[in-house]
Structures are given as structure tokens and as C-alpha cells.
Amino acid sequence: MEKPRILVVEDEGLVARDLESMVRNLGYRVVGICSTGEEAIRLISSRRPDLIIMDIVLQGKMDGIKAADEIRRLFHLPVVFLTAHTDEATFQRAKVTNPLAFIHKPIEQKELLTVIEMALYKHRMEMMLREKEEWLATILEGIVDGVIATDVHGVITFMNPVASLLTGWKANAVVSKRIEDILQLFDGDKETPVVFSPQEIIEKEGFPETVPNLYIINPHGKTPIEIKASVIKDENGVPAGLVILLRDITERRNHEQELRRLAIHDTLTQLPNRLLFFDRLHLALSHARRHGHSLAILMLDLDNFKKVNDTYGHFVGDQLLKEAGQRLVAAIRSTDTVARFGGDEFVLLLPEIQSEAAAAQIAQRILEVIRSPFEINQIPLLITVSIGLALFPEDGQDPESLITNADLALYAAKDRGRNRLCFHSELKPAT
What we know:
Layout: E1 5-9, H1 13-25, E2 29-34, H2 37-47, E3 51-55, H3 64-75, E4 79-83, H4 88-96, E5 101-104, H5 109-142, E6 146-151, E7 156-159, H6 161-167, H7 171-174, H8 179-182, E8 185-187, E9 192-194, H9 198-204, E10 214-218, E11 221-233, E12 239-248, H10 250-264, H11 274-291, E13 294-302, H12 305-312, H13 314-331, E14 337-342, E15 345-353, H14 356-371, E16 374-376, E17 379-381, E18 385-392, H15 399-415, E19 421-423
Parallel strand pairs: 1-2, 1-3, 3-4, 4-5, 18-19
Antiparallel strand pairs: 6-7, 6-12, 8-9, 8-10, 10-11, 11-12, 13-15, 13-18, 14-15, 16-17
């Protein structure tokens, strides 16, 4: 094992030689002797000492205190001060440089050994702690969650870049600020602020409130998050601080919304599917009953669509369905619903329709827009549509009967030559 390397900085030649001799006798390696702070700083780069023993009072422009401050800033090396007599002001100046020890002249070998060993041990422990802190900081800065650490009073001691991004605060600007002033939380369901209380978290050993729709407010707006808070305890089990984890769940929320959307929309046309259509139909019927309104159901079927699929392939057929769906949406009111039930079958819900004639007017518009030529992949296509219409309350009182009767009217339209509208009322026997 290599002997610890020591640099001696002393401007009294006799003291320097005696100190060198004692250090060598104690089993350490003296890598240099110099008399000024400037020279010490130059030697450190080439001699790479493990410890500097330096007089406080030195020749040159830089005394020992200034030299120690520079050495600590540039090299993070431990310094032990030598002093014959030190006034209180000088002693306080020296303490600012964080020396590991003071040795008083005249130097005793036994005291020197103790000081060197303690200084080297303390420096090793400090370096190990620093390495662990840097390692931990690197991990915390690299994880995808925001991390904030506070003391037991909620004063911030650490914030990683993700937390900085989520809060809108720079990490170096929040140290010593209270967490309540930085963490602005909002309940999206209640539309009220959520108070972050360090004392309550310590008492309940965790974030006390579960807020399913929690947001953090920042300069860019608001971001959906999950939050977890843990109490850090010392070796005696006494709370010493908090660690708060902030997770941006924007991507998850978007994914959940997309899954919900896909569950109620047709994947090809992006129109409402059967599930969403029936949900809207139930609501429309409840509204119609309360207010005495009528509503209409139109069942649509593209005429001879199978021939298009068989002749030009499913890609052209799918594009035709998508464009037909877009034309249907453009032909109806904003309060109406177009849904695709599957294949070439579409269904329209017309709430608050004034009369059978008003529903027929919309149906005639649909016949015209579908009759207009399509062009898919430079292929001109001419198709038509057959429509069956049922009215509430005349043709049915519930969703199932209305859909069934509109479907019966649709088949009647097909039987009568296609490309036409048929009312369910036309199918009723005369009285």
C-alpha cells in the first residue's frame, strides 16, 4: 500500500526541515516543501499530495488562509494549519476554509501523528460521502420522476431536473425555500387548490389525501401528476425530512383517453360505434320524454357496396366508407349523431326533430350527397344509399323498437329499388 503523500508549506526553513523529518519518521512520504501559497498551488498539480500541512502566516501575496481556500476550491484536498499564535480574527478567517485540524508550534511528533491520521481519515470519509452523494444525485437526476427533498420543516434541500421542469422553478433557486411555496397543486375534479402540508405528512407518514385527478400548476399551465411523499427518519427514528416524488402522467392520461375513445368509436371511420350511439339515444329519449319532443332514427345502407369491395379491393372499400362517413357528418346538424354499426351500415340520430317532414328533408340531403361521385385512388365511383326512418314516439318508445322499425323501413327501401327513403309509418296497415 502506497504511503500517504504530504506537501509541507512553511516559510521558516528550520521549521520546515524539522517538520519534514518528523513526517518521514512517522512513515509518510513528503512530496515537496515550499514557502509560499502560490508555489504550493503550482506543486499540487504535479506532486499530487494527499494532505497539505501549511503555516497560516506565509511569505508572498497569498497567506495560508487564502492559499487553503484556493486549494479547497481547485483540488478538494485536506489542509492542516500550522500556527505559533493566532488571534481570534485570524482563527475565524481560517475556519471559513474548513481546515481539518490546527497544529500549534512547537510541533510534537505524537500530536503530529494523531492530527495527520485524523485528517486523512476524515478526508477519506468526506470523499466517500461525497462520492455517494454524487452517485445518488446522478441517479435522482436521471430518473423520470421529479424528486424533491426537504428538511423536517419543509425547507427544500434538493430538487432534480424533472421536478424543476414540473414546478417551473430552477433547482438553484428553490434551495432554502419552503415546499408549500413551490408545489402548487390543484384538484381537477373539485377545481380547488390542494394544500401540501409537510407537518401533516410527517404526522400521517405519507401524503394524506388521495386525489385521482391531481394537477401541478406551473408557468406552462397545469400538468396531471401522481404524488408520493415519504418521511425520512434518523438513526433514532425521529423524522429528519421528506422525499417527495412527482410523476408526470400526461402520457398515461392521453393513453387512457385514447382507449376510452377507441372503445366507443369505430376504428375505421372514427365515427361513434354502437355503444356510444345507444348511450346518446338513451339520453335523447329521456330528454324527449321530459320535454315532449320527437326524435328520428335513420338506418342507412350503401347500395351495392359489396361490388365495390369485390372489384377494387378492401382498401378502396375502406376509403369509400371513410369518405361516405365524412359526407354524412357534413350533411347533418351539429346536434345529430352519425354512427357506424359495421360493414356499410350507418345509423343517424336526429334529436328534437320538429316533424316527419323535417326528418325527411335531412334524409333527402343525405341521398344527394352520397349520390355525388366519389374518387378513390383516382378511381371514379358512383354509389347510392337506402334509408329507413322511424320516429319517436309514433314508431317506438324505446331504443330497441326504434332501431328495429327503422331497419324494417330500410329493407323496404331496398325492396322498392334502393336509392330512396322509406318511412316505417308507410309499413303500417291502414286503419
